[in-house]
Queue: 3 jobs
Job 1
Amino acid sequence: MTPEQRKLLDELEPDHHLSLDPKRKVWRVYAYGTTHQFAANKLGGIEPAKAVAKAFRDSLPAAAFELKKPLLEQARSKAVGVRKCTNSIGVTYWRADWVELDPTDPLGQRIKKKSKYFSIQEYGDKEAYNRAVKYRERAIFELGVGG
């Protein structure tokens, strides 16, 4: 990002890539796909912590704020409870999520999160997506569980 672009962005939105957690009194900078925190109690208050966080943000190159994956890869599906994921070894799949009541809870108040995975490598992107959507619908309808 050129200095002119940074100046324009600061004029339009001076706190871009900064956020305050008022409960914890921590300023956060989102960069390199992770969060960097600046605690007010360690830096002499909210305003000094903001100044340090801003200085840190301003010292980073523009690449620090780029998404690791293109937006289309990060987008969720149109179906509720179905999303595309990539595991730690790079295998991409569609995952169907739903919840059901915990059978071990005598009051019937606790829930268990359930998931079913459909490999894109095995089924192809469209077929894996369709299987995930259908499986989730069946789990909710036939098994009588919640979304």
Note: Helices lie at 3-12, 40-43, 46-59, 71-74, 120-123, 125-142.
Job 2
Amino acid sequence: MACVINDRSRGPERELAVLLRTGPFERALRAAIAARGLSLERLHVRLAERGAHVSLASLSNWQRGRSRPERSRSLAAVRELESILGLPADSLVALLGPRRPRGRWLAHDPGAIRQQLRDLVEALDDDELPTVLAVVRALRASDRK
């Protein structure tokens, strides 16, 4: 029952076709929901009817980019969403990419910590650096006590 979406479609369908190729996931999901005219509540009910139990909050967070489906049950729900929304199989799943690393071991990986610090420093404006350095110095001084 999946419909074929191509670049020659008009309006929302064309935008959806592009987003299904390029992502990101949350924009593609939002566009697919809008193109089909379904509410999140209705999607929630239809997923439950198919045995895919995902909270309404999760659906909302997925389409807003606040969280991403990663667990096997969530990925199964995304596949059901693809079917409900008439999308090609794995079109949304493919936009998710690999799972993000998780766990306490990440906090103890010096390489990961250095990279996080580099990313943080690169994101700062030049005028913010003195303040950040002052905070780091104060934290180090309090750790030594």
Note: The helical segments are 12-22, 25-36, 40-49, 56-64, 72-84, 93-96, 110-123, 129-144.
Job 3
Amino acid sequence: MSDFREVLESISESPCPEHLGFSAALACTRCGTFICVFCASSGAGHSLRCLHAAPELATRRARLAASLIDGAALVLPSLFLGVLRCLAVPDEAAMKAPAVYIPALLALLVQASLIRGTGASLGKRLLGIRVVRRDGLPAEVWRIALLRNALPIALCSYCGWFGLVDALFIVGEDRRCLHDWVAGTRVVKAPRSQRSFAARFVTD
């Protein structure tokens, strides 16, 4: 108990490095620097240095898991509906009916809505990561949809090796796939306030 009281006294006696004349109220949750109540209210508990620092890059494991989740959300509903149709109508090709692809279309619309709001697809939201431009600003929907998704898929249809080359680029220090370089984007960890409980458990 006495140790806790000594810590509180040391914080209250320390000046805020950003607002001279004000005493520190707490420590930055990222770097541990003492900050005052003004810093805490404007920076979600971060010092100004941490608040304006470049976002932390997403881990390769989180990016892979997010891609698998997005792929499953796109393919599995249509596949499940195709299997049900095959069981109901055995004489017809299951995946030739247009209705089978309705779930995939709905999944794309949901993904587009999520990307427009936060720069993160369903998988990325669950893993607590998001796509931003190279300068750190939010990435536009067209940039993500066309340059990061549609263009690589089109190139993979002509050259299957492109997908492997694209993925191997992530081993670089910047952790950017080839489509990230083409689109001028990078994948970073989302602010803690935007992460789900599962994402905080996995990434923190």
Note: The first helix runs from residue 2 to 13.
